[in-house]
Amino acid sequence: MIIDCDVHNSWNSSQELLPYLPPYWRDVLARGELPGGRDSFPHAHRPWLHPEGFMRTDAIPPGGGTPGSDYELMRTQLLDRYDVEYAILGGDEGIEVSTLANPHLASALARAANDWMVQEWLGRDPRLKGSIVVAPQDPAGAAEEIRRIGEHPDMVQVIVSSGSQRPYGDPFYWPIFQAAAEMGLPVAAHLGGQGGVNANPTGTGPPSYFWEAHALLCETGMGHVASLIAHGVFEKLPELRFLLIECGVAWLPAILWRLDADYKALRKETPWLDRLPSDVAREHIRLTTQPLEQPKDVRHLWSALEAIDGERTLLFATDYPHWDFDDPDRVRIPPAWRDRVLRENARELYRLPPPRAAAPQTQASTS
């Protein structure tokens, strides 16, 4: 069995959120038009088009619609096929609220997305667990939303986009982390949100091609890790865990080596830190496997993963139903790590119960 930490359940139209919005924002969504069209969140803010499409074509529901919107198809293609013990649902367009300039609208849409998640998905299957979408440009509203719905037993993390207006260690965002820690929830940053008010997808601006951009978006993960550690977020909130989803993995050892070296030389700048950044990251930072880098010689990858104690810091993810879906039978990790990476690390992070013991078998008597 596996625990899949990145599954995208979708709506067919943002109009599905209307029943979950208060009257004023319901009127805004019904009468207005979001970037990208009335029926969508602002994916069109992105500066390039995916040449093959973001979704698996075989995940389109039989009657048409958006991949990820049909529970029965998800059950067949993912939950049952791969013996998924738990699937952590992150939604899809919901985290794009971070690209909206109006923070009040962003928070209203995030709240509606969370209520939609609870009502439309979490009651269907005990294997499904949800993520609390928040609008990071409105930290006070985000903290209120975490406290509002964070006690729901099937909501297991807070989720934001990795595209942001400032790095997440900035004290501007601390209300979000304080609320998450208070509710006993990890905070996840999912790759995305490059557009709208989050204008620059990389440190040098927008690349020309999607494949170029996709390879470089790990820069957002580097920036957030450095910022969270430098600002002492984990010293302030030692119980907090931060998960990077879909941001790659193999870059982490290199940035930690650089942070360790500079910390030794410049530590007086951040007197609140009393440990090497690599030690802080090993305790508090987690990463999903998808998309795991693919060198020609897998030993090179494994050396990098060992440098970050990958056996205990990596969580398996498929990214269903996106185009770069990862089959759990083909994930390139050391065989001895499979139990922890495919299940137990996620169980610890999300505080999920252990699997039910199999019913004892009664041996039939023979004459």
Short characterization:
With 367 residues, the chain is an alpha/beta fold. The chain has one domain: TIM Barrel, CATH 3.20.20.140.
Helices and strands, in order, run as EHHEHEHEHEHHHEHHEHHEH
Span between termini: 37 Å
Q: What is the CATH T-level topology?
A: TIM Barrel
Number of H/I helices: 13
Structure, explained:
With 367 residues, the protein is of the alpha/beta class. The chain has a single domain, classed as TIM Barrel (Alpha-Beta Barrel). Helix content is 37%, strand content 11%. It has an eight-stranded parallel sheet. Helix 3 (103-122) packs parallel to helix 4 (139-149). The longest helix has 20 residues, at 103-122. The chain is globular and about 55 Å long. Mean pLDDT is 92; it is low at 358-367.
Name a few traits of the molecule.
disordered C terminus; 367 residues; alpha/beta; 11% strand; single chain
Compile the SSE list and pairings.
Elements: E1 2-7, H1 23-31, H2 71-80, E2 84-89, H3 103-122, E3 128-133, H4 139-149, E4 155-161, H5 174-183, E5 187-190, H6 210-216, H7 218-230, H8 233-236, E6 242-245, H9 252-266, H10 277-284, E7 285-288, H11 298-307, H12 310-313, E8 314-315, H13 338-350
Parallel strand pairs: 1-2, 2-3, 3-4, 4-5, 5-6, 6-7, 7-8
Helix pairs in contact: 3-4, 4-5
